[in-house]
Each structure stands twice: as structure tokens, then as C-alpha cells.
């Protein structure tokens, strides 16, 4: 017992002597000039320590650092790169002897970091990075020392960071961005135990402002090889003139796991909301290889993209059909970053609405690897039909290339055209297939360089804007001399089938074999549609095979006569015309044939 007693007394005496030495004979502030000179010598910067440094000894070993500042390079404004109002660290003394770290308090207040890029491209960091690069070997040695001297425990009574400001000033672009960590607090923390944490953050960017707050629980394993964050709740508010309704609110509820030993990150987002859009997701990342392997699954509810898109005036279209936005894009998008991605993506959405176009039950399965985007499956339901797409984009070259194979089945085409392009031209149940390939993702070049071919079939539909039987009847009356004849029938031509094939080259769709059948008429034709100028040029030949009485006409008056029609104009305003001269010629030829037959019979078949 006496031995233990004298041992305790000895330790206390040593501690008292150390305290007396540090407080009476050793003044830490005597080293301030040496520290300032060393910083000046190695960086060329000025380190300013305005207040005296102070110690605390019992029951904790601590240091209180008052106001300090580190200057920017000469001729940089603001003059100071780093400023700190106060930093306090208190560590329990006795546990250190048994490799136990118990931090009663860590606090940092009023840190301001000004990162500047001048007009010549020089930055605040210039002159600070070389030392770190030269000391890589020392860092490795330090890591080895750290691994060989593991902590038996780590306890933190609390961490508080307040009023932290980061200012990014770019004089080349004359722009500024400001980030403020209003507060970050970490509750009582121990290895292997969950600790509460909270933060408040703000950012002022060039054209928007972000306010964010969050809370959750964090746990670090005893071996410091596994980090867990649970019950994480983040709420964001983004404000900007270019945003829809000038604000966007987001909420994220998630759990995060980081395995440092196996280099795996797992994120489970139980709730993701962007205004009215709701979703859930799972993200798995393995960063053990040079290119991280990412597996991302996300499932949306109803998505109304109109609520997320900024409201802007519609761009005018020039005479060539190229919008102002298309005309401004003259360079290929930079997809070089795709070479460093190994991503597997699975996406589902209950519905997606853009403008007036509504689709349901989206499923997307795609991979991105070494600059190749492979859309293995893209399916959706729209207008009582479904779409199935397979496609790929090769971004390994400077000019991207692509190919696709699309199928549409059972589609009600009239509401689709009305909602998609505000064109009331056609109705019916459509089946559509198209294969194509091309290069360049510049909008104007995409239309010009796309090469495709396909087939279409539309059943039990109508052609709107024209009543072909009425046109025939009107032409017949005019041929009979009734130039004032008018008809108020609906401008619609019913058909039982409309089929054809097409090819696309140089922005022009060519259809050589259009065929339409109905109980009254047969229609064959060919023509072109220019998707760049949106102009139509079609020549049609119509034959009356039944009675026009079904749509108000006279029975078989023009039966057997080829009736030429012409479709011109644009997608929005197609124009239909009847070639009356060709119609007259066809009627005269028919009458001549009848006269020949009559004479032939009267002459006894000679």
C-alpha cells in the first residue's frame, strides 16, 4: 500500500512540476515570433497572432488560440486568406498515458477563408502546395506510425463549429460565391457509439441561394474502419430568379454506411422529395479500383417536369426551322468524364409529364462503362400503347456516335400528336418501328446526320383537315359547271388502314409507298417531310372504289378514275389540293373508252 501511495504522490508531483514549469518558467508566447518567421520563410505569407496563447491543465490539458490570420499573396484582395476568431481544444490529461484520448471540448469560431483567382489565373493556394508534395514520404511514414499505435479509445465531450465562411472570388469571370457554415455541433462521442449531430449551412452562388439544415446520428467503429450515419434528415431551400416559382424545396431522409476497410459506400434514401416529386433510392459504391463501381437504383412516383423547368419565352424559329437555342449550340458536349465511370442504373417512375405529354410506368436499365452508354431497356406506357427502346451512345471519340432501335405498339396517335406537337392531323391505333444511327449531339447536326428507316401501320383512323370524298364531289360538280357548289361536311377522311415505310437522310423523311384503304376510296402516294424546315411535299393518287354517298357524295360518279391530290405546307398548317385538270383528263379518257366500247359492239365486235 505504501508503494502505491508513494507512486501516486510521485505522479502528482511530476504533474505539478510540469504545470509550474509551463506557467512560470516556460512561456508559449515566446515562440510566436519564431512561428511567424517560419511561416514567412516557407510560404512568403504573413501569419498574425493577435492574442496571447493560453494553457489549461487540470482536469484537462487545453490550449486557447485567440485571433489568428494568414495573408494572401501580395496584391490580392481581401488581404487575408485565413482568419480565425477563436479555437479551443481541451484534452483530459491522465487518459493519455494509456493511449486513451478524451476530448472534453473542441470549438472553432469565426473561421473565414478567402480563396481568390486573379485575372492572370493565379490563386490563393499558389506557393502552399509544394511543401505538401515534397513531404509525401513523411506522410506515408506518419500513416505507418498511426497504424502501429492504435488508440484504445476516443471520447469527445462535444464539437462546435460556428460562423465559418468560405468565399470564392474569381476575378477572371468577375464572379463570387459565398458559403457559410452557420453552425455544426457534435454531441458526446465515443468509438462504437452513436452521437447526435446537427448543422446549418448557406450558400450564395451566381444566380441562386441555398439554405440547408440537417440532423442525424454518427457512429465510428472501435477500429475506425467503419462509419455509420443513421436517421439523417436534410432539408434544402433553393431560391433564384431562373427557378420555377423562384424556389425549390428538397427533403432527404437517408442512412449511410462507409466501410473503410473494404472501401464500400452504401446509401439508402428512404425519402427524397423535390417540391411535389417523391422518390426513394439505393446507392452502392466500391472505390477499391481506379474507376469506382457504382450501382444506383431509384424509384419515382409521379413526376411533373413542368414544375421544375424554368419558365422562359419560347424561342422563335427561323425560316430553316432551326430554333435560336439550336443555333447557339456549336460544340459537342464534353463527355470525357464518362470514361471514368462504371455505373449500373435502374430507374422506375409511376408517371412522367412534360408540357402536355403524359407517360406512365417507366422502366430504365442502363450501364455506363469506359465511355459507352448502353440503354439495355427503356419501356413506358403512353396513350393506351407502349414504347420499347434499346440504344447506345459511344462517347469515346471527340464526336459522339449513337444507334437505336425503337418500337411503338397500340398507340392512340391523335392525342399523342396533339399533346406532343399541338398537331391535329391523324388518329387511329398505330404500330411503329424505327432503327437508326448517327453522330454528333449538336441539335442542328443531329437532325442532319441522323440515318434511319422504319415502318408504320395505323388502323381504324382518320385524316384530319381534309375530307377527300368531299373534295372529289366538289371537283365533280365544278366539272359539271357548278362553280358555286359548296359543302359543309366535316374536314375528316376515315380509313381502315394507313401503312408505309420510310427512310431518313439529311433531315428529310422519304416515304415511297404510302397506302390508305377505306370502304369508299383507295389512296396511294409518295413524298417527303423535311424535319428541319418542317415542310411537307406529298403526291397522292385516289381511286373511288365504293359509293361517296356514305359521306354525302353521289354513287359511283367517278368510280375507276385516278384522282390526283397534293399535300404541301407545314406540320402545323398542312394544305390539301385537288388537281382538277388531271381529274378532267381522267374523266374524258373514261368517256372515250365508253364510246369506243359502244361503237365496237355496234360494229359487231370487228
Walkthrough of the structure:
- This protein has 606 residues and is α+β, with helices and mostly antiparallel strands.
- It has a 32-stranded mixed beta sheet that branches.
- The longest helix is centred in the first third of the chain and has 24 residues, at 2-25.
- The relative contact order is 0.04.
Summarize the entry for a quick read:
The protein is of the alpha+beta class and 606 residues long. It contains nine helices and 32 strands. Helix 5 links the parallel strand 19 and strand 20.
Which structural class matches the secondary elements? Answer: alpha+beta
Q: Strand fraction band?
A: over 45%
- Using DSSP, what is the number of strands? 32
The whole-number mean of residue pLDDT values reads 79
Fraction of residues in helices? Answer: 10-25%
Global morphology? elongated
Low-confidence runs (pLDDT<50, min 5 residues)? 2-16, 18-26, 130-149, 313-327, 550-556, 598-606
Number of helices: 9
- Report the radius of gyration as a whole number of Å: 39 Å
Span of the ends, CA to CA = 150 Å
Q: Major beta sheet, specifics?
A: 32 strands, mixed
